[in-house]
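Progress against Task 2.4 (sequence-to-structure conversion) is shown through the following example record, which the project officer requested during the mid-term review.
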Amino acid sequence: MRCILTRGQADELINELPEMEEMYDSSSKVRDREYIQVMKSRDCNEWLKMWKGITIEKMRKEQDGKSLNASDESNLKRVQDCISSEFSAVFQTTKDKIVDRIRHSLDADLITL
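Structure tokens generated for the chain above:
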């Protein structure tokens, strides 16, 4: 068990998100193994990398008129729930507001897709 992030740590992670490397392997089998490990790690930094990778891939696919596979969609929901739960406790706000804040921090990065 680990302690919840401090407000300063959470702010720092959100601010670093645009420069953070995304986690998304082209092989779905490798991706699924990586994501299992990330979820077990309870590491918010790794959760954000995973979230960013899947979110960017989702946007790329949507631009091509496609959608994520079921496994990626499920992983996105799981990691988003973990992130929003932790960060909503830290910032004492709703999960929806946290998701909006994190998405907003990526806006400039996603424009370059």
